[in-house]
Write a structure and sequence with these properties.
2 copies of one chain form a homodimer.
Chain A (H helix, E strand, L loop, with lengths): L2 E6 L7 H16 L3 E6 L5 H12 L5 H25 L4 E4 L1 H4 L1 E3 L8 E4 L2 H8 L3 E5 L2 E3 L5 E3 L4 H12 L4 E6 L20 E3 H9 L7 H10 L3 E5 L7 E4 L3 H4 L5 E5 L2 E10 L4 H11 L4 E8 L4 E9 L3 H15 L3 E5 L2 E7 L9 H11 L6 E5 L2 E7 L3 H11 L8
Parallel strand pairs in A: 1-2, 1-9, 2-6, 3-6, 9-11, 10-12
Antiparallel strand pairs in A: 4-5, 7-8, 11-12, 13-18, 14-16, 14-17, 15-16, 18-20, 19-20
């Protein structure tokens, strides 16, 4: 019998009515004779509300206890969804992460899955029940509750799909699928019917929030097909799968942007080995993730180092950088909050030359200044002024004729 | 080292500030060198709110899933309290019922504790940590989450105190202790410094809501001293313990009332064996609990049967009774919603005669009509018109000079 893992996000289950809608949908698929494992996130904004409660009590709440607290969100969701399904006459049973055997390492609030038990789920599926599993959570070897961090529920779904050898892993979202660009910004953005894991990964890290990068990576490693589709209608969305030669014919799959970054520049550092190593290890110790990094050797053997980081870390980052800059005898440290990153992504880039040139051309035509450039095998990112983002994304989308993509 | 189990109710932890107050209190006792196990209920009205959510989704939510849902309330409380304690520099660790090994039978939403694991808690106490355990919840043999029903957190506390051989089990309430009568009704009601398990049991079943009857029974069976005390000041409350001869010197410990009952009377039933058996087994099958029962043989070999039940069950109860009454060829069925039960309780009753007479005298002086009477070894209950309750309780309190009790 066919087996699907379906993942529903928090907005899909934010009210009693939405919960019943989701249950109706699951029930009707089940009736057609498909085994279903459902993974569900905490309803609505519950996770954020719980975090707020914890911070009302303590400035830096204990991580172990935060996990105990946050895990209740998904636990409520599975219970309510199971209640909804049973009220529709569809046999269902809920399991928390610990109950079902999602074993993680001990890294509280950002644990990694090390093992997923499939036995219990399989036996319940064989009884004809829909299995509902709490996303985002697991249990470590000490039987402590752990959570998987941002996007953890997507990860739970993919891990279960892998352990159960599911035919497909569906992600129900409040969007129709993955688009060539954000439809809110680009009017003629097109929904992609298919995209490769690598492109999806780059898109996720370049700002597209439709799927979490960790879950795409996991799916890629285990060859799990992902289907990103809308919650509130029955249309097909976007399949994320292994690269095929057909995909390479399309040069670019999409244009993404990220407005949540800021830039720090360390000016005129005396150039000697180990400067970057020192700077970025200090940032790493302060638990600050850095995205793009650029280093140029300038005049008089001095270098400029620029990098981007999440804007919410800017203040903390600046403290670390200024302290290190003094050690390094740098001339000055500059910060820019008003930047954004725009990226083009596509596996076709590998076999088509001139993609970068075409992108820069599009920006130049619109008189948009490029502050930083960074490239990977299937992605080119530039940093521009934040006010230029919409213009930049549209210009690039137009230049690559993405509105005409037939998928 | 001394070991205390402390139980805090939902109102004690209903906000961040209250949570911190509770943590402060625990921390200061811990600093004086006492091992502490804390049991905590769901914050504020959370349990009721979750039940409402479930009923928004289904008319009769599945019991197994209700338990999964409701258990999240206490889980949030333990996490937040542990966060609060750690923020005060007091080492603490939280455990859910399943984590700590509170094993119950499989009776969802009203499970009974069958075993309590002490090993894990003892080892953590030995590390000098405060142990925080979620009240109200456990796990059955199938590793499913169960809850213990009304007053379940009190029960968790007593069960842990028994398993750990604690010196005392403290219950922090929003009252100062157990009183000779409700201070809201009787101005000179006195706080009792000590009361026997049996008296506390009768008080609980007679309407005093300060402690849950199941937990008192459990404490009695295992000889656990209970200390009912106020959350928001440091004064001593009431100790609930085994009966001593000193207690018998006081005839009456208190007067209680219950305004949440209603009365049903089946009039003129042809008197033959098995009538009461049939009537009350039908009510039992409908899951309706009956409190007081009175049967009198009247004229022409016909009997009247009266009984009280929770008022919220009156409608359901009347349906059952009317159907059965037709079978029994009874003359009529009467219902009275406007009743209340008033009880006097005291182990001293056993050795002092005339207690009932004195109680009836007090009521007669106030011209309060007695509708039903029921007695047990240490309790006398009467049913009166609900509008007379305050007057009745005050008259009895006065008659037995309870305002002058020195405790």
């Amino acid at each position: 019998m066919k087996l699907i893992v379906q993942k529903f996000g928090g907005s899909s289950v934010a009210s009693a009515q939405k919960m019943l809608n989701v249950a109706q949908r699951i029930s009707s698929i089940r009736k057609r004779g498909t085994n279903i494992v459902v993974v569900v996130s905490a309803p609505g904004n519950m996770t954020d509300e719980l975090i707020t409660k914890a911070y009302e009590i303590a400035d830096s709440p204990d991580d172990r206890e935060l996990d105990v607290l946050l895990a209740t969100g998904e636990q409520q969701a599975i219970a309510l969804l199971s209640i909804a399904l049973k009220s529709l006459g569809c046999e269902a049973i809920s399991f928390t992460g610990p109950q079902v055997g999602i074993v993680t390492n001990g890294n509280h609030t950002k644990a990694r899955i090390v093992r997923v038990g499939a036995k219990k789920i399989k036996s319940v599926l064989n009884q004809g029940k829909v299995v509902i599993v709490a996303g985002f959570q697991g249990v470590n070897k000490k039987q402590e509750i752990t959570t998987l961090g941002r996007g953890g529920s997507d990860l739970t779904a993919v891990a279960l799909a892998a352990a159960l050898k599911a035919d497909i892993c569906e992600f129900y979202k409040d969007v129709d699928g993955v688009f060539t660009a954000n439809p809110a910004i680009v009017k003629n953005a097109k929904k992609l019917s298919v995209i490769s894991y690598d492109e999806m990964l780059e898109m996720a890290s370049a700002g597209a929030q439709v799927l979490n990068a960790r879950s795409v990576e996991f799916a890629k490693n285990y060859g799990i097909r992902m289907h990103v589709r809308p919650t509130f209608n029955n249309s097909e969305g976007t399949i994320v799968m292994a690269e095929t030669t057909a995909m390479e014919k399309t040069v670019i799959s999409g244009v993404t942007y990220n407005k949540d970054e800021a830039k720090i520049t360390v000016r005129a550092v005396p150039d000697r080995p180990g400067i970057a190593a020192l700077l970025f290890s200090k940032l790493g110790q302060a638990d600050i993730n850095v995205d793009m990094i650029i280093q140029n050797i300038g005049a008089e053997g001095k270098s400029d180092i620029s990098f981007t980081l999440e804007r919410e870390n800017l203040k903390k980052g600046l403290l670390v950088v200024k302290k290190t800059a003094r050690q390094l005898k740098a001339k000055e440290v500059l910060a820019d909050e008003n930047i954004a990153k725009v990226s083009v992504i596509g596996v076709g880039m590998r076999s088509h030359s001139g993609v970068a040139a075409k992108m820069f051309m599009a920006l130049s035509k619109m008189k948009i200044n490029i502050q930083m450039i960074s490239t990977s095998e299937i992605k080119i990112s530039v940093v521009v002024d934040r006010k230029d983002v919409d213009k930049a994304v549209n210009a690039i989308h137009q230049e690559f004729k993405l509105g005409r993509v037939t998928t």
